[in-house]
Amino acid sequence: MDEFKPHLANSCPLTPLTFLERAAIVYGECTSIVFNNVSYTWSETYSRCLKIASTISSLGIKRGDVVSVIAPNTPAMYELQFAVPMSGAVLNNINTRLDARTISVILQHGESKLVFVDCYLKSLVLEAIAGFPKGLTSPMLILIDDSDGNFSMSSGVDDCDDTYEGLVNKGNASSDTFQWVRPNNEWDPMTLNYTSGTTSSPKGVVHSHRSLFIIAFDSLTNWSVPKNPVYLWTLPMFHSNGWSYTWGMAAVGGTNVCLRKFDAGVIFKFIASHNVTHMCGAPVVLNMLANSPHAKPLENPVHFMTGGAPPPATVVLRTESLGFTVSHGYGLTEVAGVVVSCAWKPKWNLLPASGRAKLKARQGVRTLGLTDVNVVDPETGRGVNKDGSTMGEIVLKGGCIMLGYLKNPEGTSKCMKNGWLYTGDVGVMHPDGYLEIKDRSKDIIISGGENVSSVEVESVLYANPAVNEAAVVAKQDDFWGETPCAFVSLKETTVVRPSEKDIIEFCRARLPHYMVPKTVVFMEELPKTATGKIQKFNLRNIAQKIGMEPALPSRM
Predict the structure, then answer these.
(1) What H or E segment, with its residue span, contains residue 107?
(2) b or e along 430-453 (b: 16 or more beta carbons within 10 Å of the residue's beta carbon)?
(3) Where is the AMP-dependent synthetase/ligase domain (predicted)?
(4) Read out DSSP for 433-475?
(5) How many structural domains does the chain have?
């Protein structure tokens, strides 16, 4: 059959932007976005995105130029996930909790031509731009209006080129005068996302229209998302474009309930008032919901996809007791969403709650959109034994994997080799073919020649009824090389506060001796990133100072 060749009719570039176009037809009168007193339909959202895209084009932004967005989960933030690439530009979401220096580095490295900034973050971005070297052209600045009406726009427009709503009003949604810019090739870049912990050597992950189409479609299938779900945005949209559910909600005509900041009380209120069906977030979000004084059993089940770190089985158990149905997925910025998930088997429903929770803490098997996943010896590249105990590096391959790191060919070739993406995550493969993460390679603790998984130790700590949060890092030791150092915060309801000795003895009764923390540090709250991940690099710095200073301020 050599006579068959690609045809214009069957080789159109794949892009998730077409989801919005279809949503305007199929779900035109359905609610697309809700934010306090503001709401839009899918027809209105499509029109607004076209207007923004047309205005961006009129500002001289060309195909392939980078347009940055620094905003929380507001309607404008959601619309820009479509509008920016619909103008032909590459969308660059920036973490709102980064400092001005880091934002400055990102804007310079990505050569951003235009920045949309939330009104409450304007001063941060102006400080970042002020840090540009002399002679470097500053990007245009568009101020995103405050939908709450609490921000004085009369003073806020100063130092900005225009406002977001100003661009909407100037835009044109007529197909006679503006056609949104479709990719010439599905491999064309669509997004640029910087990995957490960006410093002077940023790692800008570039994804194509093709990879994002695949992951957005795959994420819906993997989670069995039905038509017209109600999705509450507790996961920051700037984090891997909300694991691609920004575009996915358009595909199924979902209602996007936007939330400017995380508040457990507001979340429980919104779940009830908006009939929320789906949410995403890091395990720390699950923990905060389970331990919130506002926590109460839900009237209807809410599907919760968690990822970013292995959720302790105890946390899964507590959350599900409230009525959440927890699904566990694994992904990273380089794959733009969930690519491994704990596909549930009906027979597991017969297990006791603790057994089900332990299984749900495993990452699972590849999703349909991923070609393959394996755990390999990083030195030889060979797969490790599927015994649930032999650790190796997790590797992935599939159509949703990034194009590479922007201006960093060395970094790209280091992690993309031998036909695989090397993740830097350490895991094991169970006999049933299910993957389980044990740690980041940098988080493995080597004590007396033995590998200690910080995740396993943390799971035991979370089982302590007094513990609210837990993290374990390596502490240098003259004799053992490294020993586990535990950082914990306690629940507000704790009456009898455990001592360091109490925590150590609790672990000793449940872990091999070499895995037991030798040091325990109590903190009011563990430091976290904007996506809810505990900042272990900060804790490592604290751990190394223990014993070297007269006192540790955070220790009780």
Answers:
(1) helix 100-110
(2) eeeebbbbbbeeebbbebeeeebb
(3) 21-406
(4) S-EEEEEEGGG-EEETTEEE-HHHHHHHHHTSTTEEEEEEEEE
(5) 3
Predicted confidence band of residue 134 (pLDDT cuts 50, 70, 90): very high
511, HSE (Cβ side, Cα atoms, 13 Å): 24
Residue 281 tokens, joined: 């977030």
Domain ranges, residue 484? 445-545
What integer is the mean pLDDT of 30-47? 97
Q: Are 384 and 410 members of one domain?
A: yes
Percent helix / strand / coil, the chain, rounded to 5 = 35, 25, 40
Per-residue pLDDT band at 32 (split at 50, 70, 90): very high
Residue 109 belongs to a domain with what CATH number?
3.40.50.12780
Same domain, 334 and 402: yes
Average pLDDT over residues 347-373: 89
| Region of residue 30 (phi > 0: left; psi between -120 and 50: alpha; otherwise: beta) | beta
The label of the residue with tokens 């050599």 reads 2
| Spatial distance between the Cα atoms of 533 and 282, rounded to a whole number of angstroms | 7
For residues 338 and 306, the answer to whether their CB atoms sit within 8 Å is no
CA 405 to chain CA centroid, Å, is 18
DSSP string spanning 170-233? H----TTT------SSTTSEEEEEEPTT--SS--EEEEEHHHHHHHHHHHHHHHT--SS-EEE-
| CATH label of the domain that carries residue 514 | 3.30.300.30
Say if CB 540 and CB 473 are below 8 A apart.
yes
Whether residues 108 and 87 share a domain: the answer is yes
291 shares its domain with 366 = yes
Residue 310 within a domain: yes
Residue 167 is which amino acid? L
DSSP secondary structure letters along 6-64: --TTT-PPP-TTHHHHHHHHHSTTSEEEEETTEEEEHHHHHHHHHHHHHHHHHTTPPTT
CA distance linking residue 83 with residue 250, whole number of Å: 13
Can you tell me the distance from the alpha carbon of 375 to that of 383, in angstroms, rounded to the nearest whole number? 6
What pLDDT band is residue 449 in, cutting at 50, 70 and 90?
low
User: 424 and 482, same structural domain?
Assistant: no
The residues with which 38 forms a beta bridge, in sequence order, are: 35
State residue 421's pLDDT score: 97
In this predicted structure, the answer to whether residue 97 has a pLDDT above a threshold of 90 is no
Nearby residues of 60 by Cβ (< 8 Å), 6 or more positions away: none
Residues 136-148: pLDDT tens digits? 999 999 999 876 6
pLDDT in tens, 165-208: 999 999 998 878 899 999 999 999 999 999 864 344 669 999 99
